[in-house]
Amino acid sequence: xxxxxxxxxxxxxxxxxxxxxxxxxxxxxxxxxxxAGLNLVAAGLEKIDRTQTRWIEAELYRVRGELLRALPKAxxxxxxxxxxxxxxxxxxxxxxxWQLRCATSLARMWxxxxxxxxACDLLSPIYGWFTEGFDRPDLVEAKSLLDEFGGAIRRHxxxxxxxx
Length: 164
What we know:
Blueprint (H helix, E strand, L loop, with lengths): L1 H9 L6 H14 L3 H18 L5 H14 L5 H17 L3 H17 L3 H13 L8 H13 L7 H5 L3
C-alpha cells in the first residue's frame, strides 16, 4: 500500500491523497498502531485544508475517533467529539454513507459505555434512510449492531415517502 501511495505522490497529483491517507490510517486501527494512524489522519486533514478537496473529510474525522478509542489510554470524550464532527460534515455534504459510518462508530462507542438507548436512537433512523444495498458491508454492520441492541429499526420519514 505504501508503494502505491508513493507512486501516486510521484505524479504530483493530490486530489486522492487524503483518501489514501485515510485508508492507511484505518489499517492502523487493525494493526494496533493507533498513534501512527493519528499522524496519517492529521496529514489527510492538512491536505484537505490545503486543496479544499473535502469529500473524504467526514471519514477522516470518523477514523480519528476510532483511533482515539484504540489508544492504550482511550480518549472517549475526544473520540465522541470527532464522531460528532464527522456527523456534522457528512450532514452538510448530504453524504448518507458517511453519516451511516459515523453513526455506527458513535453508536458502538455508546453501546460500550452502556448508553444503549442513545445508540439505538442515533443509528436506527439513519439506517432507515436506506432503501437498497442491504448486502453492502456498511449496512450489514449497522443492521448487526441494531440487532445487537434489540432495537426496532425506525425508518426516517423521508425514506417512507421515497423522497431520498
